[in-house]
Amino acid sequence: MQKAMDQQDDADGVEATLIAADSTPTEEMPISKVLSTLAVFALLPMVLLMWFGIYLDFIPLSVLYPLVLIVTLVVVWRQLDIGLPTSAGGTGVHATRAVIVVGAYVVMLASPLILGNILVGEMSLAEVEFSEDGSTMEIKIRQNGGSSTAVDTQISIGDWSTVEPLSINREDGFGDYGSITLTVSEFYQSNALPSNPYLLVVTVEGLEMSTTLDSAKLSRTITDVQSSTAAAFSTDDDDCGTKDSCVVGVALTGWAGLDTLGDNPPAPMPLAEYTLQATMYYAGSNVAIAYPEVTVVDTIASWDSSGGQYGSGSAIVGDWGSEISLEGSESDVMLNAKYIPISDWDENDYGCYSFVVEVTQLAPWASADSVVSHTSHYEYAEEGAGGDNPNNTDESWTKVTSCD
Questions:
Q1: At which of 145, 178, 212 does a domain end?
Q2: Segments forming the whole domain that contains residue 271
Q3: Cβ within 8 Å of residue 279, ≥6 positions away
Q4: Higher local confidence (pLDDT), 86 or 283
Q5: 77-91: per-residue pLDDT in tens?
Q6: What span, in angstroms and rounded, lies between the C-alpha atoms of 372 and 105?
């Protein structure tokens, strides 16, 4: 009986050993496979995120980094078949693989912090970016491992200066950085173009950094204005009566921008803000056409179209060129423009006309009551034999030097 009981105990021991063996995962897996899996599914995604995460504007990096870590950890855990503890309903954990994976992730998480505390990078002046409307300017200062505690930063641009707090409390795919945002109108003085560049000097704890700002973004004062008209002609008897051809209206054009050499049109200024007044006078001071005031902000020109009498009421100016077409209600194929019919003029007799374009800007873009203007002159006349040969006559619209 005792021998039978001993045999039964031995059988129970063997069965328990088999059961324990079945619930403990085998450790047989080459270390090279573990390391290659970590390299492909853990390290590679983090490297890609480091380089290209800055371009993923739809999700903050502070959310993206931990999300990628969690996802890659799950993928690596499954790829290496590490398993789950029996207490969680699993069959056990491959201890060696689990230790290697956890250790690798601890190293990836701790490395930036350790390197940041031990190897603090040199501070440098990085990008200087203007807002889309040009109203503000952001200065980025980079320093990997830099302190998030704010320090006073001296900023000077020409004769203007200010002291602003700087904290290295942000990061992107290029590393750690801090930023300072300035309002452009606070330091703007005059056009940077053609020969007055703005030098930005930033001083942080004795370290001086400098760069020249984008001159095109800091040229906003209108220095040249031009004006022009072009006549629309007709040969239709309903318009001209007995004349061979006649003037049925004029297309008005203005230019506003940066003065250039010679008689060339002014250069465009995408960030200029101004109002433009266009008026055509007859015989000196009699108003023939009083065009609605045009307001230009960030390349968008707008005015009261008066129900289509003055075109669409909007145009693009300063983007690719400084020209603005002051539209009328009628279209002319030859002019490729909308003109103002002569029937809409307040004065439309033969004689000399002066077309004046005036541009006004407010501080700081120009001094108070600053007006830049241009006047062009045109002779409206009847030409031909006249007298007994009325059918040989026509009308002309000719540019002249003055109306004196």
A1: 212
A2: 224-400
A3: 287, 289, 290, 291, 355, 356, 358
A4: 283
A5: 888 888 887 776 667
A6: 66
